[in-house]
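tool_call: predict_structure(chain=1)
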Amino acid sequence: MSDVERGSDAGGERLLVVDDDPFIARLLEIELAAAGFSVRVANDGQQAIDLVKVEQPDLVITDVMMPHVDGFELTRLLRQDPRTAHISVIILTARGLSADKLEGFAIGADDYIVKPFDTPELLARVRGVLRRSKEMRDESPLTGLPGNGRAQEEIEALVAAGQDFAVLYADLDHFKAFNDHYGFPRGDEAIQGTARLLLDVATEFTAEDAFVAHLGGDDFALLVPPADAALMADTIVQRFDEQVGSFYDEEDRERGWIEVLNRRGEPQRYGPLTVSIGIASTQRRRFAHFAEVIAVATEMRNFAKGSEASSWSIDRRAGS
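tool_result:
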């Protein structure tokens, strides 16, 4: 069957197929390669993680039931690491239970296909996920801000040119509980309100040079001059805490907490949303590549999360 007959519009995107059944893995490899994709195969989730560290794919297609690291755990691991959080994931499984689908989407899967499947459906799903991912990387449809791909391009260009910069990596704490309590529309409003605040602060400090990206979910990145980074982070923290009450219903705002069921089905109380910001700067070190910048900013953000209040932390270590 020719590429025209298959309806292929693949542009050589890199796919990683993860399945412990060699027959299924080989079948997927053949069909996807014939459609114009560059395909690698892993036999379990741990091998997939090892391959991703060597070369990041655009999309992972993973079975659920595998030894060692299953498909759900693989998806969690990809989503927890900011260096791989942007990789699209399609979960492929013989289990069509609603609970399994909900769990897959809850941990960040982009799509869910139940075996047995036919090739045209699989290719359509793959192309759809890749198309949405590209749109998200170029521009966030929720906030209108540049997406993850644009942020990476900007940072890589600055690193290559040897220019000075600082990255403020910000995200919201307790956002999942907020989303569970109020629903996705209210969660989207909170994300949009945060985006406006970040853009306002960035524009105030850097005028037309402001660059604020929405990396996805409740994660944002600001590219700013190193000399302004600490004051900008402090300003963001103060203004966020001043405005966060507007995201809540009056009763919850006055009480100071919301109650949400945790994974064990037990009620758990959560205080107001807070913002944590990690800063990676060239003020004391140089960076070799984008991943190093993000790793340092993530480390600082995680350190800031040690505070129960909105907080920021900047890397002051000297590097090579």
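agent: The domain at 148-314 is CATH 3.30.70.270 (Alpha-Beta Plaits). Proceeding to next step.
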